[in-house]
Each structure stands twice: as C-alpha cells, then as structure tokens.
Amino acid sequence: MGRDLAFLVPEMTLSMAVVFMMLAEMARLPRLVLVLGLGGLAAATLLTLPVLTAETTVFGGTYRIDMLSGWAKLILLPGTAVALLMARAELVGKEREGSVYALICLVTLGALMLSGSGDMMLLVLGVVLTGLGSFALVAFPGDDDATEAGMKYLVYGAVTGSVMIYGITFWFGGSGSTLFSELGALNGNTLVTIAGLIAVIVGLGYKAALVPFHFWAPDAYDGAPVSVAAYLSVITKIAAIFAFAQVLRDLPVNSGWPLVIALISAVTMTYGYLAALVQTNLVRLLAYSSVAQSGYFMLGIAALGRSDQDLPGIIVFGAAYVAMNLGAFAIVMVAGRDLKDLRGFGRRRPVAGVAMVLFLLSLTGIPPLFGFIGKVYLFAAAIEAGFLWLVVIGVLGSVLALGVYLRMIIPMYQAAEEVAAEDALVRENLHPALRLAWGVSAVVTLGMGLFAGLLPG
C-alpha cells in the first residue's frame, strides 16, 4: 500500500488542494480558492518529476504509472493553471466564482484518472468525474444559452457514457478481467472485440469531440464562458486521447481497429476544417478547429504498437495543442467573440496580435512553431505504421487549416473600425492574469518549437 501511494503523490496533492478549495469557497474567499488551486497544481507538477520515468502499475494494475500518464500530468496540470488564470480574468467578481476554480481542478483530477487508467472501472470513473464537473462549468452563467448548452452536453454525455459502460462489459466477459492488460485474451474473439471497441469509441470519442460524436462541442463552447470553453477544448480532450492510447495499445491489432481509427481520423480532420470555414463566431470557429485537431491526434492512436513514434507523437502534439489552443482562446477573450471584432485588432494591440498569429500558425502546422513539431511526430508515426494515405489527408487538411486561420489573421491587420468607447476601455484595462495566460502560451508555442530536442522520443 505504501509503495502504491508513493507513486500517487501528485494525484493526492491535487485531491487535497481541491478539498481545501471547496472549504475556502464555502467561506466565500474566491481569491484564496484561486491561490490554493494554483499552488496545488504547481506542487503536483513538481512532484511528478521524480516518478516521470517509472514504468509500473499500482493497486493491482488498475492505474498505470508510465510515460503516458507521467507526461499527462506535466501537460494537463500546467494547462489547468493557465485556464484558471483565464477564468480569473473573465469571472472575477461573479457570484460563486470560486466554485468554478474548484470544479476546474476537480475535472482535471478526473482527467488524470483517464490518462492513467489501466482498468475498465477506473476508465468509467474518469469519464463520470470529468463529465459531471464539465456539465456544471458549461451551465455556470445561468442564462438561456448556457443552460441549453449544459443540457445538450449532459444528455449527450449520459447517452454516450451509458453506451460505453454497457459495451465494455463484453470485454470483461470475453477476457475474464476488467484490466486492459488482459485484453490480449480476446485474440480470435472478433465479435466481442468489435462490440467493446465500438463502445469505447462512442464513449471516448464524445470526450475527444471526434466525428460523428462532436455535435455537442460548438454549442457547449459557445454557451459557456470563453475560459471554460478553452479549458474543455484541451484538458478533457487530451485526457480522452490518452485514455484511447491506454486502452487500445493492449487490444489485438488483428481485430482491425487501427483501420477504423484511421478512417475516423480522416473524416474528423476534414469535416472539422470544412465546418470551421463558414463560421463567423470565433468560439464556434475554434470549436470546429478543435474537432479537426482531434483528428490529428488519432494519427498517433492508429499507429499504436507499430511505430516507435506513437506515444511520443501523442505527447508532443498534446503539449503543443494545450499551449496554442489556450492561447488562441485567451486572445479571443481580449478581442471579442465575433470575426468582425478582429478587424484592426493587430494594429490596436500589436503584441497580442503577434501572439494570435503565432497560435494560429502553430495550429496550422507552420515551422518552426510547436504545432509543426507535434505534427511531424504524428506523421512519422503514421507513415511507419503504414498509413501514408492518412498522412496525405493530414497534409491536405493543414492546407485547408491555413484557409481557416487566415480568415482570422487577415482582418487583424486591415484598417481598424470604430470601437465603442466603453469596449475600448474594457479592452485597454485587461486583467493581468489574462496577459500572463496568453504570454505563457506564446512563449511555450514559440520556445518549444525552437528547442524541440528537449521533447520525449
């Protein structure tokens, strides 16, 4: 027991931080809630470093301590800290502001469970924990749009979660164990393997916003506060992708699942960018962009077990995605939610404008930015696994992505329109936390692209 708990110190640290955050919120001390959250996330990140290279399991194999779960902590915990800063800038002074900070950290705890899950029951627990907190975060504003978005998110999550729970019972029946490490026993039992696979794709595909399970994402992101939309677009998504990796790397390859994943990847990449091309609402545009990016993640999933770059590719692109997507949403908080709000933005706020260009070009995959490095890893993994056709679609998708993001970049440097005096005052007096959020994201997006040698693999 002591040995197992020693490996779980980061998770336990975050758990304790969440408990104290809830106590501080009961006392209506939102600033203390934020400080406790940031402190807990920082401590958990530092405590991850000693166990980063460990390759073991705890509690009978139900939770994995490996490269994937270790790097998940180093990606998700700092990403959550940036999201907290964004939430502070957007929600400061709002009633029950501290509840949002506590829920964000609680959802991150569930995301860590997903990322390290080695057992079907822990997978379900991670899905439930991330889901319940996310539904509340989306509905937080309490207006009609937020309530509708929260209800859609809740209903969709309940249905897909139920399908997943029901479907993975076939795997339990076929393998005789709830551990993913025992899924090799399904070799030759094709129908049972396919039944469980479909269920996992439905349950985790919804979390990752893969086509055709993405329909909730644009409405949920648009109805939620922008900072919450940014958080959901990266933390729960990456947790679902990592959970895919934990589950499918133990599934027999001869069941044909890599081809299924590759087809989902191709459709998701293409549809996401095509839908983004016609959006004028920036939050919905970034929501569809997020859908497309999920398709790129699946290149690494399809290559699991057949390439040395499979897990490094998922990890590197995950780190890049957190930085560039959070940064893009942070700039939207500065500029406004509509495409027309970007007109002249780069001239009015040159530093923020340059940062936005960095984020969007990185999302496209332009060198030497972090997003380009991540895509190189994923393309290399897919080619090594025999999916050259999928890489071709991915490259063409990046060309399509350039068209999507240029729709945002070009207006930023066109002649500025008249800005209402009250809007100008609000935008000139940005909360320092928001400046810090997009500043850190910009440094990581550019810096890690230039120093890619520090990355795993």
Instruction: Give the DSSP E fraction (strand runs of 2 or more residues).
Output: under 5%
User: Element order, helices and strands?
Assistant: HHHEEHHHHHHHHHHHHHHHH
Amino-to-carboxy terminus distance: 32 Å
Query: In one word, what is the shape?
Result: globular
Largest sheet properties: 2 strands, antiparallel
Helix content: over 70%
Radius of gyration: 21 Å
Within the largest sheet, what's the order of strands?
Answer: 1-2
**Which class of secondary structure composition applies to the elements?**
mainly alpha
The beta-strand count equals: 2
- Number of helical stretches of at least 4 residues: 19
Please, what is the average pLDDT?
88
pLDDT < 50 stretches: 420-428
Q: What are its keywords?
A:
457 residues, mainly alpha, two-stranded antiparallel ribbon, 19 helices, 1% strand
What does this structure look like?
Helices cover 75% and strands 1% of the residues. The protein has helices at residues 2-7, 9-26, 30-48, 67-91, 97-116, 120-138, 144-175, 190-208, 216-223, 226-248, 257-276, 282-302, 310-335, 345-348, 350-364, 370-384, 388-412, 421-428, 432-450, and strands spanning 56-58, 63-65. It has a two-stranded antiparallel ribbon with strand order 1-2. It is globular and about 65 Å long. It starts with a helix and ends in a 7-residue tail after the last helix. Residues 420-428 have low confidence and may be disordered.
